[in-house]
Amino acid sequence: MGFEIRRIEIERKTYKLVKTFRISLGAMSESTVIQIRLILNGGTVGLGEASPSFKISGEYLNSVETALRELSQEFIGEDVRNYRVLFDRIDEMFRTFPSAKSALQYAILDALTAEYGLTPFEFFGGAKRKIVSDKTVGIDDVNTMVEDAKNIKGEGFRTIKIKIDSVDFALDVVPKIADATGNIGYIVDANQALKPKEAVEVAEKLHSLGVNVLVLEQPVFKHDYDGLRFVRERSPFPVAADESLYTRYDAFKLARDGCVDVFNIKLMKSGLSDGMAIVEIARSAGITLMIGCMGESSLGITQSIDFAAGLGYFTYLDLDCPFLHAEDSKYRGYIRDGDELTVLDREEREKLKD
Ligand SMILES: [Mg+2]
Fold first, then answer.
1. Are residues 202 and 166 in the same domain?
2. How far is the CA of 293 from the centre of ligand 1 (A)?
3. Tell me: the pLDDT tens digits for 266-276?
4. How many Å lie between the centroid of ligand 1 and the Cα of residue 262?
């Protein structure tokens, strides 16, 4: 046994996507991530991954990589059993790099639990060994999006997330997808593209058409908390905060002011430390939980799967980013069957490590 951190290695990896993925904020055809190997003095390895998004979080890839390379070295010699103290230090150091925070905090927990023959899934509570994810249709021409949605349903998914960027586009594409896929249940995500009154118009019209919208996600600009509340008070569908929610302080204000019904937590926005705090604020305030992702590989998404499945409080799981990758990391903490993800135990995971 040995709980002290001996070495931390940082590596940049790029994975190609199956097709270009577009949202209201931009498009991507590949995903570059920063992976961490944290090695304890007994040789046990913990893994982690940062998937920075410049357009969403303002995290520039080179800055995240440099910060991780240099600042993570300050943790050499630290004991991972003191993870809470280490998390607080990571919060202070990586305030403007939430994806780096997630990678380093997860690698610490991965190594700590591995030393005991467990996984972070069990550390978080081991609530649900199997969870169900949705899959997303990115913005494209309407016919392509309808075909993509039909294929997603054909793959076995029971919930589809639909990206939209204007009132007219939403009112065209969402009912067509609903018609073509049996009105199964949709999360409509505007990524901040609408004005508050436009968002209400979209919600009311989709409702009058009988479209089964489960959640209207981040309809307005991220700093427009009053706008979110305006939409929430008028929308027939639950309203979610995504880009408006990074830290526990955001969560507290959104809850206190009654801005939304749903929190979309992403570890790449919050790390594990703020992620855990946001979960408790949501539970106290009666806010429904969703978990989402950026461009993580199957290594990176394992962080969110362990977190969400281990805690078990999440109603909506949008953990589809590795399903959009044409190339992927060999390591993963789960196996996928249709829309079902089953968490692997430590022994099964170790076989997948290089
Ligand atoms: Mg979103």
1. yes
2. 8
3. 999 999 999 99
4. 12
